[in-house]
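Question (not urgent): is this output format expected?
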Amino acid sequence: MSRRLAAVIDTIQRDYHNDPSLESEAARRDRVRTLTQLRDRMAAEAWEAARVPGSVQSGTEAVAAVQVELVRAEDEIIMTEIIGQLPDRAVHDHFARQAGLLLDGEIPVMPECVYGGYKSAQYWREQLAARQIEPEVHLRGEEPFYHEVDPIEDVALPPRVIWSATDHAAALEKVATQHRLEPGQWIELEWPPRASLWSEGYAYRTTFEPCEPHAELDDRDEADESVVGECDDCIQPDWFVEVPATWNFTAEMTRFEVAFDHAGEEQHHEVERDSVEVFQYSELDPAQIVIGTWRARSMTQ
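Got this back:
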């Protein structure tokens, strides 16, 4: 029987998926025997298919060729008959549980604490001062359009977010659900995520609209301004947010897969790396966007 296949089954059974049908040593031994026989058949068929009719191989060459096919067959069996039979989430849930990031129940709304505007500006002033960076921080203000020299996405400072371990777990679950996991794979997220201004939104100040009696006054001096300002029927000037500013929070996702070397020792291979969105904050008044400098912005990356 193949020692390599036996070692792989023992590892999978112990760490990733406790198959009730393989709980006993005798059952695992029978499974290894069956897979070893399958390996031998696959290797023999591959060797026969690769032979060139009429060619003559030495005994050493024939043995070497068979050994190559045996290893290839074992590789395929491990991927398809052992790892490939795992539940899709088995390996991912194992590593998430080890990291304390496996959620129990529904994905919570994340995060609970997001501070924009004045609280965010004060936070960044303190952070910049602590790093001896000139804390040139101000709010965008009530202007319909941003008109400073630097592009707003280069100098806008993100809202202050207080991330929790639950937020990390929720983000990991969200990404794992959106990016289909194959058996034997798991995902890790760089944490905390990075913020980028996706849209500065649009807001404007409305104009005063008098009610009909006040509109009929030809000479505005005849109207008592205090009375007009307190008139419930007049529409007073106001700051109107038509489209809130939107911040995207992204994290680097790394996808791994479990594998086994020729001795049956477990290995981990990176198969994908990508930036993924984990949270979007779109409840910010454009006037409350915190503006810093490009140097301050680089500190948040």
